[in-house]
Amino acid sequence: MRAPIGTFDEARPAIECLDLLPAPVGAALRAWSGPVPVEQVLFVDSDPEKADTAVFVAAYGADLEQASANCVVIAGKRGGETALAAALVPATTRVDVNGVVRRRLGARKASFAPMEQAVEASGMEYGGITPIGLPAGWPLLVDAAAVELPWALIGSGHRRGKIILPGKALGSLPGVTVVEGLGR
Length: 184
Known about the structure:
Number of domains: 1
Strand order of the largest sheet: 5-3-4-6-9
Strand content: 25-35%
CATH superfamily: YbaK/aminoacyl-tRNA synthetase-associated domain
Radius of gyration: 15 Å
Helix content: 10-25%
Shape: globular
Mean pLDDT: 95
CATH class: Alpha Beta
Structural class: alpha+beta
């Protein structure tokens, strides 16, 4: 099957590629529900050395710049307690961590979680973290612009490979809150 965006050799339903995905992503795909059938969640193979957005776009198609969305893990602190959350924004923007995210989480302070903490807590690789399969109970903030994308390119949980899915699927992921202006 041909990918709906990008210049990939092949796209396959991600549910058929569970051996290429980390366990939490595979579990989320097996339990998939919502308005978009799981068969429309596609996996495309890619070089892990080209996982960063700018390099990825240069290698796999300029149309991916507007379709790419990045997921980051945020640590929100309040009263000596730290809680983790995730935020997904179009790759052409930056997450408003100290404004929108901090207020949404009710945190006194918010920052990007340290790499080791993000990797250990999510069960995914740094540079490949995806909103699919995040730990239960994590708030997931998704920029409204990402939900409006006809097709969104997101991480697969590993640096190798990406997931392509209709943007509207992002709005129905577990724990999601769609937020206007999350990315600036």
